[in-house]
Fold this sequence. Notes:
Elements: H1 2-16, H2 26-38, H3 42-55, H4 60-72, H5 76-88, H6 93-106, H7 110-123, H8 128-142, H9 145-156, H10 163-175, H11 179-192, H12 197-217, H13 229-237, H14 243-266, H15 270-289
Amino acid sequence: MKCKVLFLILSLLLASAPVKAAETPYHTLEVKASRFYEYGEWGSALAMYELMLRQKPDLPSNYYKSILLAGLLNDEAMQVDFMEQVQSHAIPFDSIFNGVRSGAVSLARPDVYVNFLRLVKKHQSWMARAIDVKLLEFAVFRGDADSTIALATDLLRLSPDNVEFLTALGNAYLLKGEYYNAILTMLKIVEYKPNDVQALLTIGNYYVMEVEKRLATAGTSLENLPSSRKALLSLFENGKITDSDAKTIASDASTAVKYLAMAEKIQSTPYLRNKMNQVQQLLRLIADNN
Length: 290
């Protein structure tokens, strides 16, 4: 009798206990998430990643894909929540930033990455400078000259001797055709890093171009220089090159040789040697004319 009563009680306890639903296998969720993502069903894909996070809360890819999807859905609140989870699980931030960037670029949606960085900067003020550096790197990657100039200028206020920031700024000025500002920036780079070949070549080639522009007005060029003092003298006599022009050409040519020679000592190339020979020949012809 007692056995029957115990059996009855046990049966009632088991019947009243909640039944835990079977958990969908992780691989199944992963396949579904991939399919939804492929067809641009962002909401459905995000739902799958949320379930995946419950099973593998320490996997960086689940977070950066979730953050990317939340960004595509313009859900900043979810992005903030995911970043809090990232922090709580001590997941490296760079793995998240790199993942979101890669996904945004592959989808041709750079705005998602930029907006995410700005959101993190807003909520994590201690990361503001690191975020600005990432924004600068991305602006350089995209060839966004205006954003690069604004970001690099701001960063240089605290780090005026940072060659990486100066290089980004100088190249952005070149992209915009602001050659004067570009050369001023490149000169600063050489001041802090005298062996920076790119900066040396940029400065040298700029002054070569200035020389070429003035020679072009006289109907000649470095490639087709008069081979004798007499031939060059005819350009002066005909007024094609004035004394003022000659002084400017000589000054620009001397500056070009200075920086090209510095670059040539570090990284010699046939182009450099040839260009230096041409400019030096011009300087000799001008000197012979004086």
